[in-house]
Amino acid sequence: MNKFYTSLLVLFVACATSLVNAQEAGDAKAGETKIAMCIGCHGIKGYQASFPEVYKVPKISGQTSAYIVSALTAYQKGDRKHPTMRSIAASLTPKDMADIAAYYEAHGKDSAPAVPDKAADATGKVAELVTKGACTSCHGANLNKPMVPGYPKIAGQYKDYVYVALKSYKSENQATWGRNNGVMGGVAKQFTLEELKELAAYVSQQQGDLQTVPQSKFR
Question: Partners of 61 in the beta sheet?
Fold first, then answer.
């Protein structure tokens, strides 16, 4: 990663840390009463979204609460453009977001597998791509321990979702699709779509905390 992106990273770390420190405390018990709009997609293993293409919705059980709040806030503000998620986020107060995030951070922890300290070594071209993208600089050596809580755990995430997410950072001037983020935009735009697929496949093969834990009604 060049000096420009390194400088951007330092700036975003400072901003993210400040936002995390200011985040409202969440109540997981209260969050359990507020997830009705979440479980229809995120509470079914392998459930697929169809916009803007078919892909599995992300695993969010075990994700950091700060990241979930950050993502929901981005949908609410329009920094992430997705009609369904923006509509859901628009209905939430900061307290709702904090409670839902606290619930999902704790959800499934008792059944989570042990996570290694380091991701498996990439080989061949993928090793070059991982180095070029500096993935571990933000997401941790095992891609499961972000350097600040506002960044996501990505180890073990569905590869088709990771690909769509990465591709969305390359999208510009789209009314209903795309994500605005200086660091991730700079990273994603370095790669071709085929290279993003290779990165997504590597990320999905790692062991992490992320799970889809079905609600009892879907088991």
Answer: 211
Q: How many Cα atoms occupy the beta-carbon half-sphere of 145 within 13 Å?
A: 8
CB 158 within 8 A of CB 122: no
Q: 101, 103, 109: which is closest to 29 by C-alpha?
A: 103
| Structural domain spans, the chain | 27-218
In this structure, the number of other CB atoms found within 10 A of the CB of residue 187 comes to 25
Q: 189-218: per-residue pLDDT in tens?
A: 999 999 999 999 999 999 999 999 987 665
- Give the separation between CA 73 and CA 103, rounded to whole angstroms: 17
Among candidate residues 118, 123, 106, 98, the one with its CA nearest the CA of residue 60: 106
CATH number belonging to domain 27-218:
1.10.760.10
Q: What is the pLDDT of residue 89?
A: 98
Is 73:97 a contact under the CB 8 Å cutoff? Answer: yes
Contacts (Cβ under 8 Å, ≥6 apart) of 38: 60, 88, 100, 104
Q: Which residue has the tokens 């605005």?
A: 180
